[in-house]
Amino acid sequence: MTDTTDLDSTDLDIARIAASGQVPPPLVMAARTRRWGVLYYAETYLRGERAYLSTVLINAIGTPLLYMLAMGVGLGGLLDRTGTTVDGVSYLVFVAPAIMVATASQGAFGESTYPIMGGFKWHRTYYGPAATPMDPAQIAWGHILGVTLRFVMQSVIFWVIMLVFGAAPSGWSWVSIPIAALTALAVACPMQAYAATLENEGAQFVTVQRFVLMPMFLFSGTFYALESMPIYLQWIGWISPLWHGAQLARIASYGMSEPLWLSLVHVVVLVGMVAVGGAMAGRTYRRRLWS
């Protein structure tokens, strides 16, 4: 019998399978890997995240609480006392869905930079799966799926806190959860595709964060309507997934009025960024892991 006293949870699962005598034949396992490789690697990613579960939960709860207090009790309270509204609603109701989208996107950016470099260079976690019948593109999409599930959970927590603060008055506000996750992917997939091309670490990620992600956060209508900005700065919002996601989240959260054609543009832009970024990431993974 296998001694599992000193094994961690992952090794314990493997030991139980081996001890059960129910390991499938090699050809069956290979066929399953080729078919379900995306799910298998997503599971690998999520199992790795368990080590950071407490940190993830603290961040997922603490970030929206701080924003709700700052925007609801702080700045929002000052505006409410003067009778100021934005788009016909309180400032907290206006800004909360956009912040939900922005925080999910910032987190997804982080999961699509250094972890990708680690998979190829530092920890080489991609090379084990690549030695199986799994397609390297499945590894790329498995990482994307794992990130998606994580930030769906984070968005659910954010949405619940919005409800507690009265920042999501619409009965359809729950739709902002998949919208936030889609926007996060629209940021993560192109970034993952870029990160996969890097063979040596430098200041690339910090540069992108400072000169791409941060301007998107500040100039994509997160804290104020995009139309209130000078016209020569509005283009930042037009090309930013954060603006497209924030607008959709506001429609779901409090029923913001917007032409249907523009809402469809938001969806097409976000889905297009996910599809193109994911395809480019898959192609780069194949080139690096099969060459």
Report the end-to-end length measured between terminal Cα atoms.
Answer: 41 Å
Shape: elongated
The helix-and-strand class reads mainly alpha
Quaternary state of this entry equals: single chain
Low-confidence stretches: none
| SSE order | HHHHHHHHHHHH
| CA gyration radius, whole angstroms | 21 Å
Can you put this structure into words, describing what you see?
- The longest helix has 31 residues.
- This protein is mainly alpha-helical and 291 residues long.
- The protein contains twelve helices and no strands.
- It has one domain.
- The relative contact order is 0.13.
Blueprint of the fold:
Elements: H1 9-20, H2 26-49, H3 53-81, H4 91-111, H5 114-122, H6 127-130, H7 136-164, H8 176-195, H9 204-218, H10 231-238, H11 241-254, H12 260-290
Features:
single chain, 291 residues, 12 helices
Short description:
The chain is mainly α and 291 residues long. The chain is 74% helix and 0% strand.
